[in-house]
Amino acid sequence: MSEITGKLHFYLAAGLYLVYGLVLALWWTSRYIRVSNEPLRTGLRLVAAALTAMVLMGSLREILTVMRWADGSVPASLIAGAKLLLDPAIPLFVAGILYPAATTRWMTGRLWAHRRRMYRRLTPLWTALHEAFPEDSLHRTPTGGWRDALRVRGIHRRYYRRAIECRDGLVRISPYLAELEAPTESSAALPPGRAAVHLRQALAAYAAGAPVPGRAIAVALPGGNDLDDDVRQLVALSDALRTYQEGTGCTP
């Protein structure tokens, strides 16, 4: 009898300590849910739900241990209930741990694909300006070549560089574009369609050594202060330039 009682005390103590650890983990998880942002908050909620089920399962096991010691018979419904709590708890806990990382990777992948697409759409505008102003290129030092192209961060660096080079080129060609537009008191930017039509002539005037005119005009002016908004305006001009080139069958 004393041996059975000793085993009972051991199982009860081990089970209670496990429940205590799970309750403590649940308490800390619940605290961090309130101060976390997405997607970490959703992951912590999944973990909290799994820990709740584990606490209930651990408590139920303690009850089953006492019942077995008392009379040796345990209702099948209680065993089924403990299994019902444990079966979804473990995969739910794993899902909660993996969810923030998986969501972050998904968002990073979407941003990478978006910037790669915008980078390619800037090609017509960049090509035209780069041929006129090759000295403005920010790519002055050799890089890893194909290794740089395969790295995830490589597209972000090329995206920023191409946007900056396009903007620098437009600043330099802006006075020549202004000469092709009637003077106006409005400070509105030159629409992409008209800018695309005039860009070829403006680049030709610059290549011919024409003097820099005394006034400039805003081109592809962004509506906000962030670089992505600036890139959207540059892409609109680049798309208009591509359409113009395809329609006339010429290149700047």
Automatic annotation (TrEMBL):
Residues 112-242 form the DUF6545 domain. InterPro entries: DUF6545, MAB_1171c-like. It holds the Pfam family DUF6545. The chain crosses the membrane at residues 12-30, 42-60, 89-108. Keywords: Membrane, Transmembrane, Transmembrane helix. This is MAB_1171c family putative transporter. It comes from Streptomyces roseicoloratus. The lineage of its organism: Bacteria, Bacillati, Actinomycetota, Actinomycetes, Kitasatosporales.
